[in-house]
Amino acid sequence: MKSYTLAEMKDKYVGNVGSAEREAYEYELSMDVLGRLIKAARKERNLTQEQLGQLVGVQKAQISKLESSSNSATIDTILKVFRALKAELHFNVRLDNNYMQLR
């Protein structure tokens, strides 16, 4: 029985790296991970969606949409959410195969 890597499976069933299908898949996956992180951090702080919304200045529905990945968020909103959760947020930028650093 032949085994396949995750990258090979994504290439075969989602599309090759750089294709529109693959980009959409990777974006959706990133938004799902971000939503799960927001939900986990909110629960760690023992906050309801409504309470977090009040801290951020948005409605409960907006927090629900962020957590369920049914809505894309601006960087500003994401920063406000993590700031309200008193959580540090770090960004990594990779250009080609090199991680960029500010000095």
What do we call the CATH topology?
A: 434 Repressor (Amino-terminal Domain)
- Return the domain count: 1
The assembly state of the depicted protein chains is single chain
Parts with pLDDT < 50 across at least 5 consecutive residues: none
Structural class estimated from helices and strands: mainly alpha
Task: Please give the CATH class.
Answer: Mainly Alpha
H/I helix tally: 5
**Could you tell me the mean pLDDT?**
89
Rg (C-alpha, Å): 17 Å
Main beta-sheet strand count, sense and barrel state: 2 strands, antiparallel
Question: Order of strands side by side in the largest beta sheet?
Answer: 1-2
**Hey, roughly how much beta strand do the residues contain?**
5-15%
**CATH homology superfamily:** lambda repressor-like DNA-binding domains
Q: What's the total number of strands?
A: 2
Net shape: globular
Succession of helices and strands: HHHHHEE
Describe the structure using short key phrases.
single chain; 103 residues; mainly alpha; 434 Repressor (Amino-terminal Domain); 5 helices; 2 strands; globular
